[in-house]
Amino acid sequence: MSNQSKNYIFIFIGALILYLVSTGVSYALFTNFGAKRESVSIDEKVDEIVGDENFQVDESLPKTEACPLNGKLYTKPERAIWEKRRPLAVMLENSVDARPQSGISKADIIYEAVAEGGITRFMGLFYCGVAEKTEFAPVRSARTYFVDWVSEYDALYNHVGGAGVCSDPTVDERAKALCQIDRYGIKDMDQFGISFPSCYRNPDRLGRPVATEHQMVCVSNNLFDIAKDRNWTNVDEDGVTWDKNFTSWKFEDEADPGDRGTLDQIDLYFWNGYTDFDVTWEYDAVQNVYKRVNGGQPHKDLEIDQQLTAKNVVIQFSEETSGIDEHKHLLYDTIGSDDALIFQNGEVIDGTWSKQSRTARTRFFDENGKEIQFVRGEIWIEIVPSGNKVTY
């Protein structure tokens, strides 16, 4: 073989080696850099995600992020949204003419108590479940005991007016919700200071005539934008992040099918004879959820036409004081302690609740004094007058 032929062979082999090495290096760089880019892509787009009012949850993504309010697992993009906000508490009415409500199925936690005349009212805590734009309706007025529960979360408080400004002589001092909102520095999102399109009246929401007081709609993204303009995001006016002062309840995974109980129905009432507001929770052992029946009818969210469910149902017994002024306002004990029943996994825990101050968390304990671990998912808290019978 000539020297020239040998040179060609060496050149070919060298070129082949160089090609293989460069290809391997390129593949390694592409793989590692690509993986890194993919892992941070969500973080890089946080501001874009948070600002997108048309954001939709990608159900194909893994749910790995625990909600601080109820322990339920969500996707990373959803967490990117809630971490830029603080919880939003919304007052929703439950009069027969106002049913069904809109947006209530998106609440992480719901409180229910009588507002007046045996008619119950809801306060939904919306934080992790409202990554997608949500309309709430019908929004109604504030009550003093709900103000105490809002204070546990340092939440935004959306309502339409309420009982008692400070100067109103016709309202008992203890029931002056509007006065307390101002005095306590609640992050107030009273609809009277919020205009269209953030809050507006929709007389056609239910497809039938309803009175004006049943028509108020407020929009989640708009409310959070207003809060941002007021410097009420996850960082408050003092530069303190919301989660720094918030203490979560304890959570656990749901029981395996073979470990679930057989208590299949809970029946409760708020006032005797006001059957339109009686509640039944029907336990579905397969899905491990409690399905809500309101006044004898499946309780649905108008926007999705699905029955409301909860992973945990809490009966919080509280001393009720009625007719304290000419407006017949009510009071419920919110600070102190009393009995409680906690339903989860088809079983009941006979326990107690305790709240040390207005801003302290309400905590729930079993009969041995051990703090309750809630099953990850929706928590519904029924404030029932002490002495009322709950059957199950």
TrEMBL record:
Transmembrane segments annotated in the record for this chain: 7-30
InterPro entries per UniProt: DUF3048_C, DUF3048_N, YerB-like_sf
Tree of life domain: Bacteria
A Pfam family of this chain: DUF3048_C
Sequence ranges assigned to domain DUF3048 in this UniProt record: 83-164, 275-381
Keywords: Membrane, Transmembrane, Transmembrane helix
Protein name, per record: PT repeat-containing protein
